[in-house]
Every structure is written in C-alpha cells, then in structure tokens.
Design a protein that fits this description.
Layout lengths: L13 H23 L3 H9 L4 H30 L9 H35 L8 H19 L28 H29 L12 H33 L12 H35 L6 H14 L15 H13 L1 H15 L8 H24 L1 H7 L3 H31 L5 H27 L16 H31 L38 H8 L11 E3 L5 H17 L3 H20 L5 E3 L1 H13 L1
Antiparallel strand pairs: 1-2
Family: Belongs to the heme-copper respiratory oxidase family.
Enzyme class: oxidoreductase
Keywords: Cell membrane, Copper, Electron transport, Heme, Hydrogen ion transport, Ion transport, Iron, Membrane, Metal-binding, Oxidoreductase, Respiratory chain, Transmembrane, Transmembrane helix, Transport
C-alpha cells in the first residue's frame, strides 16, 4: 500500500465529508473561543492539570455525554437503514462500520466513563476521604481514556473505521478481510483506554480499603461504595486479559504472527474465548455500579434504610465471582460439546439468583416506604419492570439447547439492550440527576426530567420489544437489509419509531441542562434531597479538601443517623490539611500516548520510537520528581468554611 493511501478513507461518502467539515469547524470554533475569551490559562490551571477527583469526575461525565450522542447517531442510522425493506440509505460496508463503532463507543467510551464519573465524584465523599489514594494516577487514567476515545473517533475521517463487529472476531479482523487500518484503530485505541481503566481499578481499591473515615468499617460503607469496590476488583482481574488479547491481535495484524489465524498453528476461537473472559465480566463492571446507584436512590426517596444490607453485599460478591464463569455461553452454537454447554448453562442461570435477590431487596425497601417520586426515583421505578424483561430473556438465552434458535438473531440484540439500557443508562441518568446539585450547585428541572424519563422508558420498550418477535421469526443480527417477503418490515419500523423516541428523550435531557443552567436557583442547601450518606454532609459547592474535619462514622447511613439521632459527625477542631499539587505531566503523557497510538495504527515506525521514548521520559521525570504537595492552613480553612456557610 502506498504511504499516503493508508490515510485515505476506503469508502468515502457525503456523510463522511460532512463530518470532516464539522470536525474542522468545531475545532476552529473551540480554539477561537478560548483565544477570544482569554481562557487558555484557566483551562490549563483548572482542568488540564487538575488532580482533584471531583473535576476529573466532571470531565469523565462530559466525555460520556459526548460519546452518548456520538453512539446514538450510529444507532439512529442503523434503525433508519432497517426501517423498511431493501433500503439504500447505507451500503453493507457502511452498515458494518456503524454497528462496530456503535458497540465500542457505547460500551467502552460512554458507559465506562459514565461509571468512572460517578465513582470519581462520589466515592471519596462517601467514605469521608479528601481525595483518591493516587491523585496523579487518577488524572493519567482519565487522560488515557480520553485520548483512546479521540483516537478511535478520528478513524472514520482518517483511514477508515473498524468493520469487524464490536467483538472484532478473527479472521474477520485479520488483514485478509479487514485490509484498511480500521481494526488497527480498534486494537490500539481500546488498549490505551483500557490501561487507564486498569489504573482506575487499582486506585479505587486502594482508596476504599485504606482511606475510609474513622469508624467506617467495610460493613458500614454505603452501597454505591461497595458496588465500586467489587467493580474495581473485577476490573483488576478482567482488563489484563483484554490488554494481552489486544496486544496479540495487534501483532497478528502488524507483525505477521499467527495467534488467531486459521493457518500456521493459529486458532480463531482463542480470540473468542479471551474476548469473552473479559467481555462478560465487563457487563457486570457496568451493571454493579448501576445497582449501587439504585440502592442509594431507592433508600433516599423511600425514606427507609436499604432492606437486607448484608444480602445486598453478598449478592454483589457472588455476581462478581460468577461473572468469570459464564463466558462460554456466548458461543453455545460453535461446536464445543454438550458437557461444556451444560456446565456454562448452569452457571449462566445461577447468576440470575443473586440478581433476583437485589431486585427483591429493592422491592422490600419500597414496601411501606414514604415514597417520593422525584426524577431519580422515577428512573429507579421504571428500571425494575423493564430490567426484569431483559433478565428473563437472558435466562432463556442461557438454555444452551434453546440458544440454537435465539443465537445470532435480533432476539439476542433485544435482550442485551433491555438489560443495558434500564440497567445502566437509566441508572446513570438517575445518578446524573441525583448528584447534579452536588456537582454544579443547582437542581435540574423536575418536570422536564420526568418527561424525559417517561419518553426514554416507553421508547426503550418500543425500540426493542419488536426485536424479540422479529428475532424469533428469524431476522439475523448484523444483516444490513432484508426483502419484503420476510415480513420483518413492520417490526423494524416500530423499532425505528422507538429509536427516534429515545433521541427525543435524550434531546429533552440536553434541553433540561440548558434550561436549568439559565433559570435554576443557585441558593440550594448542601442536602437538597434529604439524603442519607456522607457526600451530602459537606458543602455545595464542595471545597477542594472535601471535609474540613474528617467525619466520625457510626453506621452505613451516617448523615441520616446524624440528622435523626443527633450523632456528631465532625468532632474536633480544624487542622492544616495536606493536598496534592496539580501536574501537567498526565496530560502531556497522554498526548504522547495519542501520538504513539496513531503511529502504531499507520505503522509509522520512527514516530513510534520517538513517542515510546517520550512516554518513558515522562515516567522517569515522575520517578525522580520531589513533589510533596502543599498544606491548606487553618486560617484558609476557616475562611473557606465561613464563606460557604454564608453562601
């Protein structure tokens, strides 16, 4: 391939050219705005170099929302293509690229950062800590994720998008069937972002185990913190598998090795096994923090302590263990034998039991509660029946014999989305609304929020329930068109209308943010929801040090007990507080990683060597740097506290 041909788009179209223009104009507008309003210094000091877990959480949140709409456009294009038989909106190649990028963007670059956003902002506050255990590592984790996302997203305007599916099975992802650099982007971009996720897992396990407030034993931690601990344990065990897998795939594509080829001793099923050893725990990396959010929201707005605290903790631990024992159900139909299928069928159905325990505990928490239906609570209430549909169909797919009928059809697509959308997206929207006042100092409009919740919920049913029926009728997934004689047309048109409804619901959320930013009152209490855990015990806005005096914890609902039983949360006097310094090294190192990844994608060996040296130079500088942080004096603390009380 000629040198410059590698950078060309294999299948150009007016939409791609329009995207190029839009990206260029957006970049020019951002640079011009920063220059005109003289915000370069502010951007560098306050955001690009920050190590504050709260600001890092907000940056994760903004990135996740951006990727939500990026992946949502892909989804609308797919549903529009399938809305009518023999549609010509997209050709087969473009459809392959779109469903590939949709899956990766939504799982890796939307759902993961949404979870990281809430973990970063909430967990240190919930455990009464002043920051995470390794603040600079936390900043590097975010910037590696962000640069991985940006590298992946430039693929459709430079070199071409990956087109082998979000699972990127070999030999489809090999050079024989994916000749462009699209699959290189897949291997390298996810690798960079995945390293950031692995760092986050190590960081938050250390933070939760070592930095809890005095009196907060493990069995007094809030449920979202427990969910975060279990989730990060899964990350630490699952993501190294993905790291090794992507390295092997990269070597097959760029260096001619034969790990996954069907000749010369390779084995394509090795990719499938390794991928799902990571991929199915990844589902629970997404869902367990969502369960933690629901636990916080339901207990807050039912005005009751969470029913069955110990069983909730135990069920999460059991789910985390079983999540590593079900991966083979993703290829029941690939000839692995009846005994193996039977074993993994049993483990698949077994994982439904601890999940059911959690559902019943939430229902018992609601029973006899003084329920207040706020927007976050509405998402939680709508989640329960919708998620149950997805869960029950998962048990159906878990029966290996029946899976021969369901597998590789739209039935499976419907099941996955009926689990992930109510299980993760509803939870993230509930958490976004719930923690918005603590993040930004004002409430989102409740009326608009409830309209959005109802529209998104009803549209989810309309978009995916028809897929169960068309899947049972034989409509295969990944099929870019179909004939009118199949009878799939009406089902797909209803699905398209549902997808359009989802777009309307998310547009309402954007409008809510705009409306509330302009008109919502900034004079709100530190605890506007009358909540139960420590994150609501500090001021709004949250000071840099989180707590002037570390809280003394006596239960899993420390703030609630302090309000209702008079426990003193903050005994003692002010003392100087040690805080970490900001650093530009994580951002600079991530930019070098971006260049490293781009060089790898296009086999630019000299830039690759230079950027590799740059990465090690950054690591060396950090190793020899003497940075002991800084102290906030008692006088500064008193001044800040007085100003915040006055506000």
């Amino acid at each position: 391939m000629d040198f410059f041909d590698r950078f060309a788009i294999p299948n150009p179209s007016p939409a791609i050219y329009a995207s190029m223009v839009a990206i260029g104009l957006t970049m020019i507008a951002i640079l011009a705005g920063l220059t005109y309003f003289k915000k370069w210094g502010y951007l560098w000091r306050e955001w690009l170099t920050t190590v504050d877990h709260k600001r890092i959480g907000i940056m994760y949140l903004l990135s996740a929302l951006l990727m939500l709409f990026r992946g949502g456009v892909d989804a609308i294009m797919m549903r529009a293509q399938l809305a009518v038989p023999e549609n010509k909106l997209l050709d087969a190649q473009h459809y392959n690229e779109i469903f590939t990028t949709h899956g990766i963007v939504m799982i890796i670059f939307m759902a993961m950062p949404f979870i990281m956003a809430l973990m970063n902002f909430v967990v240190p506050l919930q455990i009464g800590a002043r920051d995470v255990a390794f603040p600079r590592l936390n900043a590097l984790s975010f910037w590696l994720f962000f640069m991985g996302a940006m590298l992946f997203n430039i693929s459709f305007v430079i070199g071409g998008s990956p087109d082998a599916g979000w699972t990127s099975y070999f030999p489809l992802a090999g050079t024989e069937f994916s000749e462009s650099v699209g699959s290189n982007y897949y291997m390298i971009a996810i690798q960079i972002a995945g390293i950031g996720s692995l760092m986050t897992g190590i960081n938050f396990i250390t933070t939760i185990l070592k930095m809890r407030a005095p009196g907060m034993t493990l069995m007094k931690m809030p449920m979202f913190t427990w969910a975060s601990l279990v989730t990060n344990a899964i990350i630490v065990f699952a993501f190294p598998v993905l790291t090794v897998l992507l390295a092997m795939g990269t070597m097959d594509r760029l260096f001619g090795t034969h790990f996954f080829t069907t000749t010369n001793g390779g084995m394509d099923m090795l990719w499938a096994n390794f991928f799902w050893v990571w991929g199915h725990p990844e589902v629970y990396i997404l869902i367990l923090p969502a369960f933690g959010i629901y636990s916080e929201v339901i207990s807050t707005f039912a005005r009751r302590n969470l029913y069955g605290y110990k069983s909730m903790v135990g069920s999460m631990v059991i789910i985390s263990l079983l999540s590593f024992l079900v991966w083979t159900h993703h290829f029941f139909t690939m000839g692995q034998g009846a005994l193996t299928n039977s074993i993994f069928s049993i483990t698949t159905m077994a994982i439904a039991v601890p999940t059911g325990v959690k559902l019943f505990n939430w229902l018992f928490t609601l029973w006899k509660g003084k329920i207040e239906v706020t927007t976050p609570m509405l998402y939680a209430l709508l989640f329960i029946p919708t998620f149950t549909i997805g869960g029950v169909t998962g048990v159906m797919l878990g029966m290996s014999a029946a899976d021969y009928q369901y597998h590789n059809t739209m039935f499976l697509v419907a099941h996955f989305h009926m689990v992930i959308i109510p299980g993760v997206v509803f939870a993230m929207l509930a958490g976004l609304t719930f923690y918005w006042p603590k993040m930004f100092g004002f409430m989102l409009n409740e009326r608009i929020g409830k309209w959005a919740a109802w529209i998104i919920s009803m549209s989810t049913l309309m978009a995916f329930i028809p897929m169960f029926f068309s899947g049972l009728d034989g409509q295969a997934r990944r099929m870019y068109t179909y004939s009118e004689s199949t009878g799939f047309g009406p089902w797909n048109m209803v699905s398209f209308i549902g997808a359009a409804g989802l777009a309307v619901g998310f547009a309402l959320i954007v409008y809510n943010i705009y409306y509330s930013t302009r008109y919502a009152s900034r004079n709100i209490a530190a605890d506007p929801w009358d909540a139960r855990s420590l994150e609501w015990a500090t001021h709004t806005p949250v000071p840099a040090y989180n707590f002037a005096i570390l809280p003394q914890v006596k239960s899993s609902e420390a703030l609630w007990d302090a309000k209702k039983h008079g426990h003193e949360l903050f005994p003692g006097e002010y003392e100087k507080i040690h805080m970490p310094n900001n650093s530009g090294v994580p951002f600079i190192m991530s930019c070098i990683f971006f260049g490293w990844g781009f060089s790898f994608v296009f086999s630019l060996w000299i830039p690759l060597i230079l950027t590799t040296i740059g990465i090690f130079v950054c690591m060396g500088l950090r190793s020899f740097e003497k940075d002991h942080g800084h102290y906030i004096s008692v006088d500064e603390i008193e001044e800040t506290e007085n100003n915040l009380r006055g506000a």
